[in-house]
Amino acid sequence: MRILVTGNSMSYLSGQPLYCYELCRELRKLGHEITMMSAWDGPLTGRDGYLLKEGLLEVGVKILDWNAKLNEEYDFVIASEIRSEEAIKQLPRTPVINVVHSEYDCETPLADRPQIFAYVCIRESIVSHIISNHGIPASKCSIIGNGIDLERFKPREKKENRNFYKIVVPGTLDPLREKFLNKLIDSASEERRIFFFGINCGVQLHGNPWVIFLPDKFNIEFDIADADEVAGILLGRTTLEAWACNVPASIWNPETLEYEIKKRPDNFEELYDIKIVTNKLLKIYRKYVSNSHSTP
Fold first, then answer.
1. Domains and CATH numbers, the chain
2. Is the pLDDT of residue 296 over 60?
3. What is the pTM of this model?
């Protein structure tokens, strides 16, 4: 099949870009013709952001920027974030799956219309949010988790014996996470050291000699596997990558700062293996096609 994938940005290492990256690569492995339409640079460009583009080109994914004119026909679109409207307006007869990555304004779902045959949410709380806050029909909603490449993210031996507890925090240092970040920083000590990986997007962070700030890092799987704990907000990629490496994850509420540390669930692969996630998305499309053909 010929599939168009769209998302606001593919220039930094955050949830939507990494989701699209893993999805496009897996779809290519399955033999589909994939085009990724997005912004490939801009104010959120991280040190390792360019590796997303390189990794997609390496497996034969076509690259388009937002100002491109869509001259090809596609079987369907997998669209993330509101800017995907720019692509969908060019393809009014092409069916769309809208993937919704969070409950926050930056992830407002596309307005409901016949063209959008499914809304895929990466966790259960998002389904409730888009139904109650955006009027999305429950019949169109499905829960399919973030897809994780389990060939990259897997358990590894710790690099060294150490006399401190190591917390790794991958992710953008942005205003949404500021309270959470400072709470972690204030908790650091000689016995509890914290390693942040990400670009600073205008947050004011406290100081602590036992906190290390490092640039965004694409090959983060080795650092995650070496951690005693990985911290992140809500149930996002950070948590899932930690679980894939069999490392406990602390899941924080960015507003209340409540958190709990959880270990990898028994059905982890069924929920988050990129191969299974991709097949679930394709199954939704095939069901839509089957229903369309059976309608008189």
1. 2-147+273-294 (3.40.50.2000), 165-269 (3.40.50.2000)
2. no
3. 0.94
